[in-house]
Write a structure and sequence with these properties.
Blueprint (H helix, E strand, L loop, with lengths): L1 H20 L5 E2 L1 H9 L5 E4 L3 H6 L6 E2 L8 H8 L2 H4 L6 E4 L5 H12 L7 E4 L15
Parallel strand pairs: 1-5, 2-3, 2-4, 4-5
Length: 139
């Protein structure tokens, strides 16, 4: 009995430690992103919003992929179409999705699997819906 309890406790610890490191992503704040745009900092802006969302508003210079929700092979192929652009230099890749959550995280993971260094990958905090500077958007 003692052995089973010990194994159960060890398994729980491993799960908790594993979860602490899972889902760790690099983020960029809207404030820093705005500064980068104003200073024309070299970066790739990967916008994954659906067609209507992109047409409504997007950041200047954003690459229109319409890959959201980035769950299917077809969605991922839309991202892959931009690999030549984002691999031509070492500039950061800022991922823009509707809310900066699941779609952005799946994009981050996909690009990482494709060989883009995690140190280059950033997710815009709050996504496009959380962007507090409407005057700076392209429409």
């Amino acid at each position: 009995m003692y052995r089973k309890v010990l194994l159960l406790v060890a398994a729980c610890v491993l799960v908790l430690v594993g979860n602490a490191f899972a889902g760790s992503y690099n983020y960029i704040s809207p404030e820093q992103m705005k500064t980068n745009l104003e200073q024309k900092t070299p970066m790739h802006i990967m916008d994954i919003q659906v067609e209507d969302g992109y047409a409504k508003h997007h950041l200047p210079g954003a690459m229109k992929s319409c890959a959201y929700p980035v769950k299917s092979a077809e969605d991922k192929a839309k991202l892959d179409a931009f690999m030549a652009d984002i691999t031509k230099d070492e500039a950061p890749v800022v991922i823009i999705c509707p809310r900066g959550k699941g779609g952005a995280e799946r994009t981050y993971e996909h690009l990482k699997e494709k060989g883009i260094s995690e140190s280059r990958l950033l997710i815009l905090e709050g996504g496009q819906e959380g962007w507090p500077y409407p005057e700076s958007l392209d429409k």
